[in-house]
Amino acid sequence: MTDQNTLDELVPAEATYASVTEDVSDVVFSSQKQRHWWVGFLIGLILLNVLLTAIGWLLVEGIGVWGINIPVGWGLAIVHFVWWIGIGHAGTLISAILLLFHQNWRTSINRFAEAMTLFAVACAGLFPLLHLGRPKFFYWLVPYPATTGVWPQFRSPLMWDFFAVSTYGTVSLLFWYLGMVPDLATMRDRSNSRWGSRIFGLLALGWRNSARHWHHYQKTYLILAGIATPLVVSVHTTVSWDFSVGIVSAWHSTVFPPYFVAGAIFGGFAMVLLIAIPLRRIYHLEHMVTLKHLDNMSKVMLVAGLFVSYGYLMDAYAAWLKNEPFDSYIYTNRFSGPYGLLYWALVICNCVIPQALWFPRVRRHTLALFGIAIAISIGMWLERFIIISLSLHRDYLPSDWAMYYPTKWDWLLYLGTFGMFLTLLMLFIRTLPAISMSEMRELVHESNEEQS
Amino acid sequence: MLSESPNETSRLVDWVIPKPHFLESWGDARAYDGTASIIQPMISPLYPGLSEIELLASLLGNNPANGYSEVRKTWERRLGQEKNSSAWQQALADGVIEETAFAPVPLSIEEVPVKENSESSPSDEWDVIVKPDPTIWDGRFANNGWLQELPKPLTHVVWDNTAWIAPADAEQLKLSNRDLLEISHADETFELPVWIVPGHARGCVTVFAGYGRDVVGRVGNQTGYPVKLNSSSDGSVTVRPVGRRSNVVTTQHHQTMEGRNLARAGTVAEFLANTEQPEFAHPPSSAPDATMYQQWSYDGHKWGMTIDLTACVGCSACVIACQSENNIPVVGKEQCDMNRHMHWIRVDTYHKGSPEQPEETLHQPVPCMHCEHAPCEVVCPVAATNHSDEGLNQMIYNRCVGTRYCSNNCPYKVRRFNFFDFSDAFLTDPKLDLLSNPEVTVRERGVMEKCTYCVQRIENARIHSQVENRELADGDIRTACQTACPAEAIRFGDLNDPQSKVHETAQHSLNYGLLEELNVRPRTTYLTEVTNPKEAPQP
Which of B366, B408, B447 minimises the CB distance to A133? Predict the structure, then answer.
């Protein structure tokens, strides 16, 4: 490990404009460090093929290949939709909200966190389409002037969801791309190949680094950040409405929106850590993604985790306070029903394990952080499973209570989305600057000013 | 041998003559009191064959055998000789021949001493009670998919037979549902899956025969377990757990109400004490009246249904009637195991009290409630399910994209989803094409479906009344489940018509809505079960 830098540093003292640019662009241009990349890319491609197989079989046979049934109409597909969407939250939070709050530490992690957001939203977006009984008619959810004169129903939370997710995807893409324009120009200028410079040139939109460009750029970037900020809250709030608007008694709860948002941030930061920790190790970027960054992200996770735990507690408290047979039963069933072990696993993963983050030593220990991030990812998966499928398996009439067992096709589709995520991430790392060079140079500038 | 389909006997004989279905052939029969009836074919035979009458006639030398002329000849003394005599026409139209009942024979019944049920724990010897299967009977209907998939009363087991034992016996033998039980008598031994039935007597086992046949057909092959008891059996057997399990499938996994007022019941005495507002029918609850939704207005008809739990015997005839009327596919045991059966109406069973001595076993038919404030309607993103101006909760199959949100949001879980192309055979097999009701859409893969209150019957009745230039009258529309109900527990009609029968029961003090505390305002309502129990005998 080369983590000798102090906690307060966001950039090493010896960093210069040139060294920052070189370190970041080298990941794309150099052919030295490609062995790890090829391994990752290959795994991604294999899993991507798993995804294609799972989708193909699903389309041929129908969604009966999954384990869903009546009463459990939503199973792993929706669990994974919410899980991936949740992961996609950290990116925008880091780039938009932290930008508005002038949190400089976001600089080195925002680019790949945003990329992660985009890819996670892409993975998430697959599920609502594929989970339809007749996916060929997915476009009926789009409000277009059809000759039938029939419009989608705007009272349905699924409609709101459609708008929330598509807006979020679009804004995240714009934000990510816009933030990359100055860097794309750098890449254009540093590229040795004809095609490389042409493609980067096209993407850079004629950026010439003029003061005017910078002026417009920074204005637009701030405005976009302003637009993106409410989205961080709105997307997962809307996703939670899919449930809290329903009549299913375990879903019908006003605590859902805030605790879904907190859960999304919780899971999203865990995923950022899961990517950042190997990335900085493999590409020796420890001086850019420093321990200070990991420490800060851990603190955000700790707070989000406490929020989430509070949500669990209040949900149970409200059910107890109501003292009404349906609501009380939900908790009896969660604690001690056939899926009881999953609930306690959730409590351990999301409420107990993250408490280790109170200790600065843990926050600075990459291996421990990696383990905690994995636990949180599992915990957030369990949370969605418990909320979505567990709530349905025993609802109002005991006569229709039933168990839900996912099939291998449920799991293969999930595994496959990791393939898509990994493939896109690997392509991103090899083709685009994974860390914002222009903002890093700004940081170098600032720290030089401080020193002088 | 004369047979409708290949079976164990037909495999052993040299000659098999195909027999048409009784609905394809002429015949006659007598009712329990001797009243004669002419059996008229409903359809010309799909495949050539000989009915029993035709076979006998041809053996007597009447060739070519003709069922019609044989039946006609039998009754010519009574119904006249000319081909279309009015008496013959009348008998066909009435379905019975007047005044053919036999004179009753005077009988006296001796008092049979009732053997007291001893409460002693079971010894090695168990009593065995052999019963024909409730759905496939003695096995003759084993190739009938509808009957195979019809949940058996009480256990709701499908596609299999089981051995019923008491909960206490199961505990003693350390048996749970689906464990295989070896039943032996003299040199006969067979295995059956155990099903624990609350209220079953101790020390005895009820087995259902009819399953486990060798040669049945595409549907019935390899279903169930054979019951091998020869006629010399004195009714006592020895039982032994084998330690293996079967894969018996049930469609109702949970039979207690968990303290919820679902199937309500009371006694006559309780009812007489308070006929205006009997508490057992209307327990205190926090049922809210306020609502954010707009009230629907009904200028014309307002369809509604009531189900009388006192009358319902839990026979499930409504389920089959609905299946036949509405082109409901059979999905098979494996899909039933995944809780994907397709019945639009189901008959729930609940036991009250302890499993050993349940105070009561209640049956509750559950079709779609056609809620006034249907939770399914608001959540569909493409508006594929909506409210009609006559109060029906309609399902627009063509518009459905299959999000299944409506089913998740249905507190009654009466919506059924086509997880696979279950109805494919309706469209591709020309024989099965005849099976389907042309008035009802066949649903494709990925589409949600549910009870429509037999909307096709409503429309048919409306067309007829318009042709006859009159108003729809109460009783013009009878839903499939209603026509099949032997106890007339189901009433259907116009709630706007104060003279209608359904209006009477909907206004009755025993009427309640299932899960009415959710304020979804179900339109299908129930009449609380009222029993008149005997005082418990003194020990």
Answer: B447
Chain B: residue nearest A60 by CA? Answer: B420
C-beta of residue B226 within 8 angstroms of C-beta of residue B212: yes
Give residue A130's domain range.
Answer: 17-154+243-451
| Calpha distance B340→A71 (Å, rounded) | 9
CB contact under 8 A, A246 and B415: no
Q: Does B292 touch chain A (CB under 8 A)?
A: no
Greater model confidence, A100 or A84: A84
Q: Which domains does chain B have, with CATH numbers?
A: 2-94 (no CATH), 125-250 (2.40.40.20), 265-531 (3.30.70.20)
Per-residue pLDDT at A280 exceeds 50: yes
Among candidates A138, A248, A397 on the partner chain, residue whose Cβ is nearest the Cβ of B401: A138
Amino acid code (one letter) for B55: L
- pLDDT reported for residue A398: 92
Chain segment B74-84, per-residue pLDDT in tens: 888 888 877 77
Q: Which secondary structure element, helix H or strand E, spans residue A2, and what is its range?
A: none
Which H helix or E strand runs over A284?
Answer: none
Number of domains in chain A: 1
Residue A105 has pLDDT above 80, yes or no: no
Residue B494 β-bridge partners: B303
Residue B429 pLDDT: 78
Please name the member of B254, B366, B381 whose beta carbon is closest to the beta carbon of A158. B381
The pLDDT value given to residue B13? 93
pLDDT for the residue B41: 92
Q: What is the pLDDT of residue A2?
A: 37
Is B239 strand, coil or helix? strand
**Chains A, B: CB contacts under 8 A, how many?**
164
Q: Which of A395, A399, A401, A409 has the highest number of chain B CBs within 10 A, making it the mutation to test binding with B?
A: A399
B447 neighbourhood in chain A, CB within 8 Å:
133-134
pLDDT under 50: residue ranges of chain B = 121-122
| DSSP bridge pairs for B189 | B184
CB-nearest to B401 from A64, A132, A245 is A132
Query: Which residues in chain B are contacts of A162 at CB distance < 8 A?
Result: 381
Chain A residues whose CB is inside 8 A of the B375 CB are 246-247
CA-to-CA distance for B184 and B191, rounded, in angstroms? Answer: 9
Instruction: Name chain A contacts of B381, Cβ cutoff 8 Å.
Output: 140-141, 152-153, 156, 158-159, 162
Q: Tell me what pLDDT residue B536 has.
A: 58
ipTM, two decimals, is 0.90
DSSP, collapsed to helix, strand or coil, labels residue B116 as coil
Q: What angle do CA A118, A123, A127 make, to 5 degrees?
A: 140
Average per-residue pLDDT for chain A: 87
Average pLDDT over residues A312-322: 86
Asked if residue A120 is part of any domain, the answer here is yes
Contact between A396 and B350 using a beta-carbon 8 Å cutoff: no
Average of pLDDT values for A154-181? 91
H helices of A283-324, where?
Answer: 291-322
Separation between Cα atoms, residue B435 and residue B449, nearest integer Å: 19
Rounded CA-CA distance A300/B303 in Å is 57
- The answer to the question of residue A177 being in a domain is no
The pLDDT of residue A437 is: 84
Is A133–B417 a contact, with Cβ atoms under 8 angstroms apart?
yes
Is A5 part of a structural domain of the chain?
A: no
CB contact under 8 A, B402 and A132: yes
Residue B383 in contact with partner chain A when CB distance is under 8 A: yes
Residue-level pLDDT at A13: 67
Is A172 contained in some domain? no
Q: Cβ A395–B413 below 8 Å, yes or no? A: yes
Q: Which of A325, A400, A403 sits opposite B413 (nearest CB)?
A: A400
- Rounded to whole angstroms, the Cα distance separating B18 from A228 reads 76
Q: Output the pTM of the full model.
A: 0.90
For residue A383, report the phi and psi dihedrals to the nearest 5 degrees: -60, -45
